[in-house]
Design goal:
Elements: H1 10-22, H2 37-51, H3 72-82, H4 95-111, E1 118-122, H5 125-139, E2 144-148, H6 154-161, E3 166-169, H7 179-187, E4 191-197, H8 209-219, E5 222-226, H9 241-248, E6 255-258, E7 271-275, H10 311-323, H11 331-351, E8 356-358, E9 366-371, H12 376-392, E10 398-403, E11 416-423, H13 429-444
Parallel strand pairs: 2-3, 2-4, 4-5, 5-6
Antiparallel strand pairs: 1-7, 6-7, 8-9, 9-11, 10-11
Length: about 450
């Protein structure tokens, strides 16, 4: 039934566990005990009851933040691996899961057009971006890092941790990095790295990568692409021309990050960092007298700032890529296209509603809109009221403080307005848009 959690796939886990157990059939019996079964049952049921006090992140009526349910194959493969609980820091702790990680990461690299690369999984986009900027700082020590004012706030924080100067470049009317402002700052000198965001987390804007690449040719900075949220949209066939042009040039950046736990159908946390030049691995070089002894092969911990990392995340990602290959025109790509189609449909409906002001059409699957009102304060207040009213009706949206310029600044005040925001990142959102519009309209009344 619609809205219920998937439990029909659980017998498949039992079958897979039986196959896994056969691999250890030569071991003497050593049955693991979970303790008192009744006590275990009691605690599990208590946890289940607690978890009911949650938003329905798995349902298309949850259209707020970037929360996408893992695919069944990812959930099951992750759970299967937990019976062994491998650690992908060293081959001793995750022999097979490390190989699966390398294969899965290579699949992502091929998606971006990289046959050779250096990369690995991380706990998420923040750690992945930290590694990319750390390498940038090693290659261009003390030089300034630039990112759009609409880029993720962690770039400023990461730069502070790395003791690198950081500056924000203004965004244009469409939430993209302003190329003229970027060139003015580059001309002033001292810039080592520019971060291009392909899919900002606030509005889904895609920075103009072709123009940034042209500036790199002139000014010689290192170019990092933050694709944590938007990277998989490279595979979609229904992007507008500016976004398509940006994604098609991604193979030319120096490093990039992508979060499989966003659009890659993975459980949290699963990020990925990739470098085009494998030679940057020399900056990770270190020795551990007790960790790296079982193999002369490269241990993933030797090219990672993180130490212990869940092998289960690699197993889940590997299984998902086996079931849903990363190829244009495939099932996975069509799921992304459904998300963007949903966002375009919602934006079109909102644009025809006199009660709202829409920003630019969505480049990916995020829609933002403000409430039409006499003042910024009134618009912001009404947005909060609609947000609360929609939640009472079972529709869960998000709020965002956005520059009024994105809406044409009808008040002539500058500054920011509290706007409504919806991330339609579930393929099921495509068919749910009429219900969402109806619930939103009722909430606005």
């Amino acid at each position: 039934m619609a809205g219920r959690l998937d439990s029909a796939s659980l017998p498949l886990l039992q079958d897979a566990l039986a196959v896994l157990e056969q691999g250890f059939a030569d071991l003497p019996d050593n049955p693991a005990s979970a303790g008192n079964p009744e006590a275990l049952r009691k605690v599990l049921l208590e946890a289940a009851a607690r978890l009911r006090d949650n938003y329905p992140y798995f349902h298309p009526h949850y259209a707020g933040q970037m929360l996408k349910p893992p695919h069944a194959v990812a959930r099951l493969a992750y759970a299967l691996a937990m019976w062994i609980n491998p650690n992908n820091h060293a081959l001793d702790g995750g022999r097979v899961s490390s190989a699966m990680e390398k294969e899965a990461v290579a699949g992502i690299a091929r998606m971006f057009g990289w046959g050779t690369h250096l990369g690995h999984l991380t706990s998420g986009g923040t750690m992945a971006n930290l590694e990319a900027l750390w390498i940038a700082g090693e290659l261009k020590p003390g030089a300034t890092v630039l990112a759009s004012s609409q880029a993720h706030y962690t770039h400023g924080r990461i730069s502070a941790v790395l003791k690198l100067p950081f500056e924000a470049v203004p965004a244009d009317r469409f939430g993209r990095m302003d190329l003229l402002a970027l060139e003015r700052r580059l001309a002033a000198g001292g810039v080592g790295t520019v971060v291009a965001t392909l899919g900002t987390t606030a509005t889904g804007a895609v920075d103009p990568l072709p123009g940034i690449l042209a500036l790199r040719d002139r000014y010689g900075f290192r170019l990092h692409a933050d694709c944590a949220y938007g990277g998989y949209y490279l595979l979609a066939d229904n992007l507008d021309a500016p976004a398509r042009a940006a994604f098609d040039r991604l193979r030319e950046v120096d490093s990039l990050v992508i979060d499989p736990h966003k659009h890659g159908l993975q459980p949290y946390g699963c990020g990925c960092v990739l470098f085009r030049d494998p030679a940057v691995g020399t900056h990770y070089r270190h020795d551990s007298p007790y960790t790296y002894f079982s193999s002369s092969e490269l241990h993933l911990g030797e090219i990672s700032l993180e130490c212990s990392r869940p092998g289960a995340a690699a197993v889940a990602l590997w299984a998902t890529e086996r079931l849903l290959p990363l190829e244009r025109g495939g099932t996975f790509a069509r799921m992304l296209q459904d998300c963007r189609a949903a966002a375009l449909a919602l934006h079109a409906g909102l644009a025809q509603d006199a009660r709202f002001m829409t920003a630019f059409p969505p480049e990916l699957d995020i829609v933002v809109w403000a409430v039409r009102a006499q003042t910024v304060a009134e618009s912001s207040r009404r947005a909060q009221e609609i947000f609360d009213s929609a939640a009472r009706r079972g529709l869960h949206l998000a709020l965002a403080g956005l520059p009024v310029a994105l809406f044409g600044d009808p008040w002539g005040t500058g500054g920011t307005v509290t706007a409504l925001r919806s991330v339609l990142m579930k393929p099921e959102h495509r068919n749910a848009v009429p219900e969402i519009v109806e619930l939103l309209s009722a909430s606005t009344r």
